[in-house]
Amino acid sequence: MRLLVVEDDKDLARQLRGALGDAGYAVDLAHDGEEGHFLGDTEPYDAVILDLGLPELDGITVLQRWREAGRVMPVLILTARDRWSDKVSGIDAGADDYLAKPFHMEEMLARIRALLRRAAGHASNEIQCGPLRLDIAAAKVSLDGQAVSLTALEFRLLSYLMHHQGKVISRTELVEHLYEQDFDKDSNTIEVFVGRLRRKTRAELIETVRGLGYRLAVPDAG
Ligand code: CA
């Protein structure tokens, strides 16, 4: 999962990137509204954290422009404490949730997890797919009840496939959702990661759909 953080307070932006990175997400940062708007308009983020008080272009305008352009990614807005009117205008502009500053990183992470799983159509923090179980809050995967040891990128890839299980995901889509903006993106590396995941779990769980991409097989019920 790849996230965008638009926050002009550089210390807070760094803290957000650190906490989200530790939780297994790829994170891009923008420090003003223009840059944030551009990135959110051109890159396929799974969710965005958007401060409202921003230089160049304020957060509400950024959000309104994204929504007018049909960008539907979940957006968590950061508002000043006690500014209830900001929360109202933010939600009316298309925000999915808000956090009032100052906040605890744990609460921010919980809200992001909730936005991501809802966007993918999951109600709980655990996603099951046959013998595989993803614990979103703990950022851990188990196979038949045994913890699977994964690198950050392997986890990101498997987590993305599990959030979208049963759907064919192209290599391009995976590259766009796994790597940060400045990363040297090479879709051939996806094949390498898929190979490793097959070895660490079970080969038949990740299907190759020739010419299209990959699909996490949904086992027959019962
Ligand atoms: Ca600000």
Question: Nutshell version of this structure?
Answer:
By secondary structure, this protein is an alpha/beta fold.
Describe the structure.
With 222 residues, the chain is α/β, with parallel strands linked by helices. The chain has 2 domains: 2-119, Rossmann fold (3-Layer(aba) Sandwich), CATH 3.40.50; 126-216, Arc Repressor Mutant, subunit A. Helices cover 41% and strands 21% of the residues. The chain is built from 8 helices and 11 strands. A 5-stranded parallel β-sheet has the order 2-1-3-4-5, sandwiched between helices. β8 and β9 form a beta hairpin. α2 runs parallel beside α3 (59-68) and α6 crosses α8 (188-200). The longest helix has 15 residues, at 105-119. It is globular, with a radius of gyration of 18 Å. The two termini are 30 Å apart. The model has no long low-confidence stretch (mean pLDDT 93). The protein binds calcium ion (CA). The site of calcium ion has 5 residues, from loops.
